[in-house]
Design goal:
Elements (H helix, E strand, L loop, with lengths): L10 H31 L3 H27 L7 H21 L3 H21 L1
Helix pairs in contact: 1-2, 1-4, 2-3, 3-4
Amino acid sequence: MATEVTATASPQRGSAFLRIAIALQTLTIFLQSVSAGLLLTSSYGETLHSAGARVMYGASMLYVLAAVLAWKPGGGSPRPVRHASGFLVLASVQVALGIAHVPAVHLPLGVLMFGLSVLALARR
C-alpha cells in the first residue's frame, strides 16, 4: 500500500523568516533616527534619510509578505498579518508626513513605530 506524503513549509522556517523581517524593519527604523540626526547636522543627511525611508518602507512590505507566508501554509492565526498590515499603514502615513514636512507628527510617529517594532520583535 502506497502512502502519499505532501510537503508543507515548516512552521519554524516561516516563523524564522517573520522574525528576520521584523528585525530588519526594527533596524531600518533605528537607522532612520540616526539619519534624522544627520539631517539636522550635515549636508548629506537629507539624502541618507530619503534613501532610508525607501528601505524602511520596503522592510515594512517584507514584513507583510513574511506574515502572510508564516500564516497561510500553516493555517495559524492571522494576527501577525493584521499587525504587519497596520504597520504598513503607519509607514505610509510616516512617509506622507515626511514628504509634507510635518515634523510635529512625523517625529512622534517614528518613535511610536520604533517602539511597536521592538515590541513585535520581542513577541516573536
